[in-house]
Amino acid sequence: MTAVRPDITPKQAPGTQFPTGFIWGAATASYQIEGAAAEDGRTPSIWDTFSRTPGKVRNGDTGDIAADHYHRYRDDVALMKRLGLKAYRFSVSWSRVQPTGRGPAVERGLDFYRKLVDELLDAGIMPVATLYHWDLPQELEDAGGWPERVTADRFADYAAIVSGALGDRVGMWTTLNEPWCSAYLGYGSGVHAPGRTEPAAALQAAHHLNLAHGRAIEVLRDQLPAAAQTSVTLNLHQVRPLTGSEADADAARRIDAVGNRVFTGPMLRGEYPEDLIADTSHLVDWSKLVRDGDLATISRPVDALGINYYTPTLVSTPVAGADYARSDAHGASDHSPWPGSEHVAFHLAEGKERTAMDWPIDPDGLYNLLMDTHRDHPGLPLMVTENGAAFDDYVSPEGRVEDPERVAYLHGHLDAVQRAVADGADVRGYFLWSLMDNFEWAYGYSKRFGAVYVDYASQRRIPKTSAHWYSDVIRRHALPPAGTV
């Protein structure tokens, strides 16, 4: 098979058209859809362990079967083709291809991804491979997980295995998906696997994830054809102060540092921000954590930056005696996912419609995030690699799934992308989250983000109204008038 080589140098077309060459895709993650949790040599990841721990996942749900994509991938790719997708962003299960996180690959595991990629290429769909979407092999967590430096070494070995197997057919690669979640939800607040609540370990994990990214980029550049594209995907927080006070501005600065610049600083500038180090110096000794050569490795150039966006982040410095909700839209916990800034208060924007996740709907947040990133890192191509919403979808008596709220959400956010492009942001693609309903991490199967409805009992796929709407957007290469379904 011949890889579909991405041309991510679009030119702006006139009128309401998106740029020529703009990539239209959808995204998924391995543990959320594949199932087949113990087949063909796959061993437990931290999410297998976490989901089997009582009280960690709603209703005791696991990803053992999920959307059964492992067995139904051919039908799923055929569905993608019918919807007109031009690209599909998937992740590789580390424990499926390298069960212990070290040593040789299991060819049966790699064969699944070889077959998936071939099916995509036959359908004219560009495969976009993500190496890590949170499912660390459990044996590596047993050895200390991401807070241990050696995990970055293991990740480089794993990157070599996967790129060696798929590099002749996959032209676009992402190292990590949302390392903020892996570090802070996994090791800080404990609402994600592995469920640890250790602020210092969360910061150590952040650095080692950065290091893993850099080492993987080195491997990819060494093994892949020159035309291949490399990237990393970050869930950058569009942080806003609640008021114009200096105290609230400082709260926003702190969250921007530990939420955004802890990754963009070393990855894109080759340095950790001084204010981040000052805010967290009581937790870790950065001079010992960051070794000689680390920053040069972490800052290896990438061809694009993936940005995931769902809702903005509104913060303040607490007022004594005031009552603030502990949830910051990432799951309630008695432990903070913001090491060094645990005191910062989070708010839900008033007067906004909300999704089933209770997240305020604010397309301007995506516009501002794209423009801010373009301003801070000029010349770096951007991709919206996740954007979408959960709603309380159901199958009507006629067998349809009507989701006008999701259509409105997508229209507003695609309009924000188009406005950002018109104002100079170099945005080269959009990947809807998610292609299909799936295992939504600690929420289990209680939240539906998909454009395609999955009846988990029968595994029947039903494209929702939003899937047909998105298909029409792709066909038009433009947005229809607002309110058009």
UniProtKB/TrEMBL annotation:
A Pfam family matched in the record: Glyco_hydro_1
Enzyme class per UniProt: hydrolase
Catalyzed reactions: Hydrolysis of terminal, non-reducing beta-D-glucosyl residues with release of beta-D-glucose
InterPro entries: GH, GH_1_N_CS, Glyco_hydro_1, Glyco_hydro_1_beta-glucosidase
Keywords assigned by UniProt, alphabetized: Carbohydrate metabolism, Cellulose degradation, Glycosidase, Hydrolase, Polysaccharide degradation
GO molecular function: beta-glucosidase activity
Gene3D superfamilies assigned: Glycosidases
EC number of the protein: 3.2.1.21
Family stated for the protein in its record: Belongs to the glycosyl hydrolase 1 family.
Protein name: Beta-glucosidase
Taxonomic source organism: Streptomyces mutomycini
